[in-house]
Design brief:
Distance between the termini: 45 Å
CATH class of the largest domain: Alpha Beta
Structural class: alpha/beta
CATH superfamily of the largest domain: HUPs
CATH topology of the largest domain: Rossmann fold
Number of helices: 10
Helix content: 25-40%
Number of domains: 2
Strand content: 15-25%
Shape: elongated
Length: 329
């Protein structure tokens, strides 16, 4: 799958594609159904199928204080889009220029002239252009002028409700991970590279893997029992360790660590009974059960004791020795 970063990198080979447009946060079952329909339309026309998406999320740029939590980073979103079989992703930087692009220019200039699309598939509630001024009817009229066809896809429902990124975020935020997995078509996971932190976990006797993720923007907060997976190294590259993680039990903390500094949100995972170097390795963490919220302890010794209890709770729950209803502390 090809990734085109920015409209300035569009080349002649990218033109004439069938495209769908949106944020695609989480790449949930509604997105997957849309891409399946897009691929079918592309096959019928003998062209490539491309996803046009935005980075950052428009609301993160326009109204950052009201921006929704992130289900996926751009890297993870691209990985999930690749799994759908789409031919490519055009990632447009959402900045002042794109934010100010009117609906007519978005359709005629960006889609028509710059991308040269021949087919556009969108949801029936699609809005586009500055201040979301364009709707499906306008896109269809402008498409006729620019030479591309516009089709709308009906809403995909699960349990009689529309599948949406908002619905997935709501499920994850309250620890309903089975529901989130049903909506996503796969377990909810957080993906990131392990980087150096302040080694506070090690000082407390509970070393952690610190993931480079936008922890403050995740729909998670608190302590979780989780499983850790490792993304396999690329072909021809030796693994960082002979011990490849595949569902390794973990206790995870997401938050500002109020006992330590209480300022910057971090994502830390203690891999239970693991010994080895994790720095530089790319992990996917799958939260299984929320255990407790963040709270401030009277000192580091009390915090270390609580971490020990959290780790033991996570261990027993993941081994099946503890009922989930008894795991919340």
């Amino acid at each position: 799958m090809e990734i085109v970063r920015g409209i300035h990198n569009v080349r002649a080979r990218h033109r004439g594609a069938a495209v769908t447009i949106g944020n695609f946060d989480g790449v949930h079952r509604g997105h997957q159904a849309m891409i399946a329909q897009l691929r079918q339309a592309a096959a019928e026309r003998g062209c490539a199928a491309y996803v046009v998406t935005f980075e950052p999320h428009p609301t993160e740029y326009l109204t950052p204080h009201r921006a929704p939590a992130r289900l996926t980073t751009l890297r993870e979103k691209v990985r999930r889009l690749a799994a759908t079989g789409v031919d490519g992703v055009v990632a447009l930087r959402f900045d002042h220029s794109l934010a100010g692009l009117g609906a007519e220019d978005f359709a005629l200039e960006l889609l028509g002239r710059r991308l040269g699309v021949q087919y556009v598939l969108v949801g029936d509630d699609f809005r586009f252009g500055a201040a979301r001024g364009g709707d499906l009817a306008l896109l269809s009229r402008l498409g006729a002028r620019a030479g591309f066809i516009v089709h709308a896809m009906e809403t995909v429902c699960v349990a009689a409700e529309r599948v949406s990124s908002t619905r997935v975020r709501a499920a994850v935020a309250v620890g309903r991970f089975a529901e989130a997995a049903e909506l996503l078509g796969q377990p909810f996971q957080v993906s990131g590279r392990v980087v150096h932190g302040d080694a506070m976990g090690r000082q407390l006797g509970w070393p952690t893997a610190n993931l480079r993720v936008p922890a403050a923007r995740l729909p998670l907060r608190g302590i979780y029992a989780a499983r850790a997976y490792e993304e396999r190294p690329k072909r021809g590259r030796a693994a960082a360790s002979s011990q490849v993680l595949d569902g390794w039990p973990a206790a995870v903390s997401v938050g500002v660590r109020p006992t330590i500094d209480g300022r910057q949100a971090v994502f830390e995972a203690h891999l239970i009974d693991f010994s080895g170097d994790l720095y530089g390795r790319h992990l996917r963490i799958e939260p299984v059960q929320w255990l407790r919220g963040e709270r401030q302890f009277p000192g580091l010794e009390a915090l270390a004791q609580q971490i020990g209890r959290d780790v033991e709770t996570a261990r027993r729950l993941l081994q099946g020795d503890l009922d989930p209803s008894e795991a919340v502390t």
